[in-house]
Amino acid sequence: MTKSAEIEPSRQLRDVRYEIRGQLARRAHEMELQGYEILSLNIGNPGLFGFRTPETMRLAMIENLNGSEAYCGQKGIFPAREAVVMQQQSRGVMDVTAEHVFIGNGVSELIDLTLRALLNAGDEVLIPSPDYPLWTAATTLNGGKAVYYRCDEANEFMPDPDEVAELITPKTRAIVIINPNNPTGAVYSRECLTELAALADRHDLIVLSDEIYDQMVYDDAEFIPMATLCESALCGTFSGLSKVYRACGYRVGWVSFSRALDRAVDFINAMDLLAALRLCSNVPGQWAVQTALGGYQSVRKLCSPGGRLYESRQALVDGVEASKYLTVVAPKGSMYAFIGVNTDKLPNFDDEAFALELLEQQHVLVAPGSSFNTDYRDHFRVTTLPDDETLRDVFKRIETVLEQMSTRPPKLESA
Predict the structure, then answer these.
(1) Domains present along the chain, CATH in parentheses
(2) Among 40, 71, 95, 344, which has the highest number of CB atoms less than 10 A from its own CB?
(3) Which residues partner with 68 through β-bridges?
(4) Across 212-252, where does the E strand assignment appear?
(5) What share of the chain is helix, strand, coil (3-state, %, to 5)?
(6) Structure confidence at residue 225 (pLDDT)
(7) How far is C-alpha 246 from the geometric centre of its chain's CA atoms?
């Protein structure tokens, strides 16, 4: 009997990475099975750190369970879509209707659906570096090519629109904007966003604006909805319940399209077809959308002085300032920080090796910076969701590992 051949995965996955839940996370799970308590700072998952979904949202879902047992329309239930429309209109986006809103199983599903509806083989998508790697993965899986525009730390991780303009080619179809930003915590200025919108208008690019952290801003940072700045370019605005409303497990996200709608009829129909092929998204969670968007916005208190997210962010900034090795651009939004390491003091630093050592020795799981499609290896991302006391302890553990690394002799260059 001949030996059966190995079962090979699709070649389409060859260039797809999602290291946030990759090899390091698998090793952390192994350690948990061995009895170790792992502090997982690699994922922004509020429920793991004691945050609760607002009670009004839970009640809205429970009260509508009897109406949640059948499939709904592929775009989602009307009350949820209309709530998204009303939020957009309150922000000055007046041309969106419920027919231009799609509810999905989280923003992640909608990113994939949107790029599948849009891209032909070889089409280029402008994506920030560092990025949220799902944007790169979905572009690749749908036959496109990710072209990265650099968000420089020296510019507080905001892009330079002039540099972005130089990357545009006849194959460029869309530009991805993540604001407030994951992984850096940057909140883009009105001037920067206005220039990016003008580029999209001028080159007829579709704007894909990831705004899942829209209300999660600190101090004097101002969130500017991208759809208010686009004039002739089609703008897709992505958001959901996971972060601002601390409801990751509900798996409810949405994308609303505005501007250029008269030229996007076939594209919207393609989105509708793809949404229909997966029947519909989770129905019970959709009943929480109207209550969430129309009710008290508790995240504002969490992000204000004295609020838990605000104080945790401050503890992170303090921890970096106390370190001999770390630097950070204080996050102005979201629930992450992209922390740099001084390679003059640690010339052999490698983000993946550091993350593994931190996990094995101190039982803290972070995401290496290169996981976010950077061309450098001297950063790592952490979430600011733990309370301030826990984060102070985390930075003591990080410093312990960095001190140990600093005492090792430098690696000899091979001949």
Answers:
(1) 11-52+301-406 (3.90.1150.10), 55-294 (3.40.640.10)
(2) 40
(3) none
(4) 235-240
(5) 45, 15, 40
(6) 98
(7) 14
Residues 360, 398: contact at Cβ < 8 Å?
A: no
Which residues in the chain come in under a pLDDT of 70? 1, 411-415
pLDDT given for residue 7 in this prediction? 83
Let me know: does 258 contact 100? Beta carbons within 8 Å: yes
pLDDT in tens, 20-66: 778 899 999 999 999 999 999 999 999 999 999 999 999 999 999 99
Residue-level pLDDT at 415: 44
- C-beta of residue 10 within 8 angstroms of C-beta of residue 130: no
Spacing of C-alpha 339 from chain mean position: 16
Query: Residue holding tokens 């509020």?
Result: 46
pLDDT of residue 364: 97
Per-residue model confidence (pLDDT) at position 202: 97
φ/ψ of residue 43, rounded to 5: -130, 140
**pLDDT tens-place string over residues 349-361:** 999 999 999 999 9
Q: Identify the pLDDT of residue 208.
A: 98
| Amino acid letter, 236 | G
> Can you tell me the distance from the alpha carbon of 101 to that of 258, in angstroms, rounded to the nearest whole number?
9
For 386, the token pair is 């733990």
pLDDT of residue 236: 98
Residue with tokens 């793809």: 274
String of DSSP letters for 113-168: HHHHHH--TT-EEEEEES--HHHHHHHHHTT-EEEEEEEEGGGTTEE-HHHHHHT-
Residue of 253, 334, 326, 263 lying closest to 292 (CA atoms) = 253
Cite the beta strand spans of 226-315 per DSSP E. Answer: 235-240, 253-258
d(CA 340, CA 377) in angstroms, rounded, equals 9
Indicate the burial class of 111 (C-beta count within 10 angstroms; 0-12, 13-18, 19 or more).
Answer: buried
Give the count of beta carbons closer than 10 Å to the beta carbon of residue 49. Answer: 20
Q: How far apart are CA 281 and CA 109, in angstroms?
A: 9
